[in-house]
Write a structure and sequence with these properties.
The complex is a heterodimer of chains A (226) and B (240). With 226 residues, chain A is mostly helical. Chain A contains ten helices and no strands. The chains are: A mainly alpha (226), B mainly alpha (240). The interface between A and B is medium-sized, with 33 and 28 residues.
């Protein structure tokens, strides 16, 4: 195993272990999303959703739940001196970016494992569209994790930490949300899933992941300099 | 030191604006469909193009700052984005007026260019709270540059996604208007584009000059208050 890959595995394992022991983010994210579904049920006054309304409710909820986790992503590094340790360690700093993106993807996948079935039970008539939805969820998680990690690492070193993440992240993920809802909408359509422009939207999601993955990888070094 | 060339540049901008505006109002023909209100096109579209190019230029300055670690480029990047955000407000207001006059509504969600521009504007509007939430000066400059680079990459992607979200049957108003634009209109439009571009450059230069002058005054005042304390090394010209 190369040093970079060992460092990547070590940071990722530490992140997952501390989340498993403290359970700081994940239960809050899951609880938040279920409560938000209930609020949407009364806000929209609908007991079943389909098509664009279903896609909108699902993605708005997942996005805001993700913001909760993104806010806390680097808190431990900041408070316990993890940034200094990474700076001292003889490894490439981008490894921290990669490991944090991977950790965030795992958190988001875990959140969706809970939130999406509950969403289906609450609002959907059939579960036919959920299979192909996995591809949309995974691609969107990657993009959300790349931008989220980048913004979170900057916001954690500022005065207005909890304010900056939603403020800067939300406009930045608008294209991602356009593509994700565009792909989800026909899957949850009334009368069974269809695949209208499904591949095109997946390609947009992939492009977003690629661009912001590369941008994050390229600029992350500068965020750790001090 | 930034003031050099500011006067001829300002004169050129005013002259170009005067020539272009007279071309717009007295030379370019009235639009057959929309009549006089179509003249706002000659202000709205160049403003939008210049603002977007300004955002990209801010990103390029930010890359220069990250590569060279020279604070001058951070000031350039900040001022470019600052002037472009101000132009962005003008773009949204003129766009709303044009939409009201030609479609009857202040805001039209079907027009992808306008919607994309709003999203880009919202992102860049967060540049200020983001920048001023970071206290350490070096870190502030570096993080602001990272923001400018990321947002610069976001601009084209956002335009693509918003355009794709429209149903394919919706007519592309601007594309057809520009494609079939008569020569006189095209000339007036291009002159306005150059004039607004010059205006942007002048404002950026003016803002940089003002910032460097006020920085110099501050340093001189500090030197007067405490004539011996500290070295003279702090008198290095810095803009920010």
């Amino acid at each position: 195993m190369t040093p970079s890959r060992a460092a990547f595995a070590a940071i990722l394992a530490r992140d997952l272990r501390s989340e498993l022991r403290t359970l700081q983010s994940l239960p809050a994210m899951a609880l938040f999303s279920v409560t938000t579904f209930v609020i949407f049920r009364f806000g929209l006054d609908r007991t079943s959703l389909s098509g664009s309304l279903a896609a909108g409710v699902l993605w708005a909820t997942l996005l805001f739940a993700a913001v909760l986790g993104i806010n806390r992503l680097f808190v431990a590094e900041r408070e316990e001196g993890g940034f200094d340790a990474i700076r001292l360690a003889p490894i490439d700093r981008s490894v921290l970016f990669g490991a944090k993106v991977a950790a965030l993807v795992i958190y988001l996948a875990a959140l969706e494992l809970v939130a999406v079935p509950i969403f289906a039970v609450f609002f959907l008539d059939g579960a036919g569209g959920l299979g192909p939805l996995v591809a949309v969820l995974l691609l969107a998680d990657l993009g959300l994790a790349a931008t989220g990690t980048l913004i979170s690492s900057m916001a954690v070193n500022s005065r207005a930490r909890d304010l900056l993440v939603p403020l800067v992240l939300l406009p930045l993920v608008v294209p991602l949300m356009i593509a994700a809802t565009g792909a989800t909408e026909p899957l949850l359509a009334l009368g069974g899933p269809s695949y209208h422009r499904f591949g095109t939207w997946l390609m947009v999601l992939g492009l977003y992941d690629l661009i912001f993955g590369l941008v994050g990888y390229a600029v992350f070094d500068f965020l750790l300099e001090d | 030191m930034y003031g050099k060339g500011l006067k001829p540049l300002s004169i050129a901008t005013v002259a170009m604006l005067a020539v272009s505006l007279s071309l717009v109002f007295f030379y370019a023909p009235l639009d057959a469909d929309q009549g006089f209100i179509q003249k706002i096109f000659y202000v709205h579209v160049p403003l939008a193009i210049v603002a977007l190019v300004g955002f990209i230029i801010g990103g390029i300055f930010a890359i220069a700052h990250l590569r060279t670690n020279n604070r001058k480029w951070d000031a350039y990047s900040y001022v470019s984005i600052h002037i472009s955000v101000i132009f962005g407000v003008a773009v949204l207001i003129t766009g709303a007026i044009w939409a009201k006059a030609s479609w009857g509504h202040w805001w039209v969600w079907d027009e992808p260019t306008l919607v994309s521009f709003l999203i880009v504007f919202l992102l860049y509007a967060t540049y200020y709270p983001f920048r001023y939430a970071i206290e350490d000066r070096d870190r502030q400059a570096r993080y602001a540059s990272v923001f400018a680079v990321t947002a610069g990459a976001f601009v084209p992607l956002n335009f693509m996604a918003v355009r794709m979200a429209q149903s394919l049957v919706h007519p592309r108003t601007f594309a057809t208007a520009e494609g079939g634009m008569p020569g006189e209109m095209m000339l007036a439009f291009l002159c306005m584009l150059v004039a607004i571009g010059l205006l942007w450059t002048t404002l950026v230069k003016f803002e940089l000059t003002a910032k460097s002058a006020s920085g110099q005054v501050k340093r001189l005042r500090r030197a007067l208050d405490a004539p011996v304390a500290g070295g003279s090394s702090r008198i290095a010209p810095e803009v920010s």
